[in-house]
# Entry
Amino acid sequence: MTEIMPNITVRGPEAPRNIEALDPVFTVSNLSVFYGDYEAVRGVDLTIGNREITAMIGPSGCGKSTVLRCFNRMNDLIPGARAAGSIMYHGEDLYGDHVDPIEVRRRIGMVFQKPNPFPKSIYDNIAYGPRVNGMKGKMDDLVEQALTQAALWDEVKDKLKQNALSLSGGQQQRLCIARAIAVRPEVILMDEPCSALDPIATTKIEDLMQELSRDYTIVIVTHNMQQAARVSDRTAFFTAEVDEQSVRHGRLVEFDETSRIFTNPSDKRTEDYITGRFG
Amino acid sequence: MAILSTPASTVRLASQGRPLKEHLFRIALLASLAIAMIFLVVLLVYVVTQGWSRLDLNLIQNFPSLRAVNAATAGVLSGIMGTLWVVALTALMALPTGVLAAVYLEEYADKTKWYNRLIELNIANLAAVPSIVYGILGLGVISRGFGLGPSVITGAITLSLLVLPIVIIAAREAIKSVPPSIREGSLALGATQWQTIWRQVLPASVPGIATGSILALSRAIGEAAPFLLLGAATLVRFNPDGLDSSFSVLPVQIYNLITNSRPEVQVVGAAAIVVLLAILLLMNSVAIWLRNRYQKRW
# Structure
């Protein structure tokens, strides 16, 4: 195994697992995403393993966020956006005619690039998801549980009635994670969750992700390669390619165990990107 | 050292006549402001001095009279009450309608469709239609067509139509200023579009909607033209007691009092103007208070 990036610590090189054999939550086949006539992403095949952290990396405009937003059908909200190919969620077609995107989003939570707490109290931020989904049970317990899981409880337990926007950026992002957890999703999608945060807050979120991966399946888009190397089990490397008609499309170049992507990538483009020769 | 330093001759820190221009510009700005303020102050002082002798409780407790004998005790109570009735009903009708229309345009309408763009354009046009035209609409369609006659409800419906475009525009601006990330955050939690609007977007836009609506309503309070056409009687010696009651409004009473030939009666008109301005200032202060109370926090 050649050490391409000796300064990057890779999450424990466990027993090598076969991509085909993993317990899939999502199976993406030949996925293309269009905005109007423009094909933003072309022909992606990907498998997201249960209770694993899958990182999607690549240069700007390579379509990694676009793919991420297909997993909870957030792209539906963009006029003219549509997906071709298939994304199977536990064997069910996410884009099937009978599928309700609201139900999809309840099971597949999302954390955004910029922390976006609601302009309400900390308590109401957490309670919002369960309330709109008509969840029963003691709300106080639910709020405490979600905040505890998101490693925020100790910092906010005395000020639950305070406006969420009074928290620091890192706390706000953990609040958003707690908010997503509160509806008990199976999957949490994270779209560059640390890009607006300082290094200390970033470390906290990364630790939290490791913690959460015991119970949740996590897919994270990141610009930070070290972050992908530190936290993820598998990594998908995307890049933008220009086709014969000189139109740019996002493509999936390589998908493998993170340790392999960062130490022994099979594609030259991946190697160039992670060694900093490109991107 | 010597090589790096700039020759003294090229340094120009000395004044180049800019302060004078800056000064003139400031004066021009102040003068523009002064023109607006001076006329307002002149108007206020003039009206208050004219009506001073009649700025008493009788003014807001008694019914109007055009007889010089009663000029010392006559009031504009029926006008005040009529205005309050009409404005309250207008708010009741125009605010929900306007806000819902704005929600449709901002949250549901597909802006690539020609009919939605046509609607948008025409709302902007409607906001610019002179109020007298709404008066004609009220007279022809609501008063005579629907047979509601010169009643409180006719006045309120007409005024609602008049303020509706302004309320829609204000509400749209307020809804538009709610960041998309709030909507995304809500939808990503499995909230429906309506839940997102009702629980996130509308609460966040309440200050903007309230401020805009109050300003629209306070404009409506000063309207006399549509009511002149609608036949809001000038000399009403009773307060409205229902939707079908005949009524008068303050601006119409003021118009009537001021155009009277007897100076004693004109004084009552001047005093009534002060009352109208006081109501307007009160409403505007509420708008400002609301705006400051619920400052945007993102």
Summary: Residues 188 and 220 of chain B are 42 Å apart (CA to CA).
